[in-house]
Amino acid sequence: MPDPEVITLQFGNFANYVGAHFWNFQDELLGLAEKPEVSAAAAQINPDVLYCVGENLQGQQTYTPRLLLFDLSGALGGVSAHGAGYSDATASAAATASSVVSTWGGGVAVHRAEPVQRSAFLEHLDQESEEAEEAMEDRRGSHARAEALEQAARSLDSGDGVRYWTDYLKSYLHPRSIYQIPGVWHGVADYAGFGEGGSVLRTDEAREEVMDRLRQFVEGCDHLGGFQCWTDDMSGFGQLTADMLTEMRDDYSNVPVLLFPVRQYAEYPANAGSDRQTNGRRRWQLNLALSLALLSEVSSVYAPIAPPANPQSLPHLHWNPHSKFHASALCASILDTLTLPYRLASNPPRSPLGYPTGRVEMGSLAQLLAPRHIANCAAVAGALPCPAIPAEHDMLAASDRRTEGGRDRPGIFGRGTTASWTPGIRAGADGCTAEAIVLRGPRRAGAPLNTEEAAAALDAALMREGVRCIQQRCVVPQPLPIPLPFPRIFASTVLQFGDVLTDLQAPLAAQGHLGANGVGNGTTSSGHVECVPVLTRLANTAAFGRLAEEQLQRFQSAASSAGGRAMLSSWGVGQDEMLEVEERLHALAHAYSGEDSD
């Protein structure tokens, strides 16, 4: 029986920025699976879970993401929404010709904006693919093309290098994967309020079109395992997400939905004028409350993700919080790791580092984290890159020091070494009832560590924490592969395979290595980080009760002002809907406090 398939839904521009990085990670894994020296570790992650597998005219295997995404019109930049080989210029000309009224005998003037140019990275990527297929270039030409592609990838990290998420997306998408909201244009419409997307699925025609697109992917599955969704919930795509997931309930009521609201900022960015900032902050508070109340109700697990507000929480990364390209890369790195348990192959090949552990289907993961639907929120914490695992005698010595000190201090996997990636929830918050932990690409002393030893070290560290809750842990040999168009955000302390200089006990020397995914020895930096170990923790915690109470108070405060009432009214949120939001937040707060909700 094949592994259960998963369909991905992406709602909104920032969610699609995140998605572009996520699919680049998958593309990187597909490439590694074709390299004999490292293929086993990469092949332990089953691409069939996320991809529709087919064959092109040349008999080569093709992988198309099982994906439905939503964005504003014009958000694709220079990339066509009609699939490879069909240009938007051709589509535009055809649309113009068809719109001319045949009974009109006068002159016709056509005003057309200059088409958006594709990024240099995509142009070089296409050239390399074409020449590889034709096998016409010599080795010298191939090297020159590779250098040009690398230079184009580096240029993405310049000030204006990325204007659209398609500028760095390597995967080809199915034409039916892309739904652009008609009449609402990227770069023109603000679309910053949660309720602004409430009109998208209002007509029967629109609902039928998007559900038909989704149905096409569902029918291609042998065993649908669930939906994974990321949404730009601090915008009009929040309400669109709520409407879409509500529509899906009728047909797919027993299919789990993991919902990850993704945000560029963990808190409101205070960079506007006073009047505008007051209005923006009010909208932000309304968005937060509506997201928590409405989106948690239509999902199996609700787990918001944003880069930590304090950059010092990620000491080995140098990133620009105001860059969508950077912030989305961080979110995607955490998402790719969080979702590994249900993407692992049920019958994986053995790698030199052993088998992965902790595979679980999405439904079981959702049941672990949210056995009661009313309390289905989960907090995300993570270490990127994850520190190296100390030698066994060092871990025992550290354990003795903690015992002598009279209290449990954070160990290498402790909550003190991971940053919070969920706004409003601190890392290591008390009241954890269930937790899913993923460790990928573990390393020790500048070399990869086999899964058996890594799992034992992780189990010992978790036991020393003394947290009494249900824990599911997953250990995977394959580290996070860093694609060419990933931003250059790693500090100089991060070496080629993700080792951090401060973690090493002796000066590093050049060593041989097996390959680009770090499943071999050697950590000498070559100027580009090829892969990194990552640790994530996804936990159902009572801290969401406090967060729900805070959101309720702030929602009531914002909604009681004239500006707040006008804003909600413009989104179609009336008095009855406001009461429903308040009741849901109140019920969440009670559920996490252990009290029965009304």
TrEMBL record:
One GO process term, biological-process aspect: mitochondrion organization
All copies of domain Misato Segment II tubulin-like, residue ranges: 5-127
Entries under InterPro entries matching the protein: DML1/Misato, DML1/Misato_tubulin, Misato_II_tubulin-like, Tubulin/FtsZ_GTPase_sf
Localization: Mitochondrion
Primary localization class, coarse: mitochondrion
Pfam families: Misat_Tub_SegII (PF10644), Tubulin_3 (PF14881)
A cellular component term, taken from the record's GO annotations: mitochondrion
Annotated keywords: Mitochondrion
Annotated ranges, domain DML1/Misato tubulin: 159-344
Keyword hit for Mitochondrion: yes
PANTHER family: MITOCHONDRIAL DISTRIBUTION REGULATOR MISATO, PROTEIN MISATO HOMOLOG 1
Membership in a protein family: Belongs to the misato family.
Entry protein name: Misato
Organism this protein belongs to: [Myrmecia] bisecta
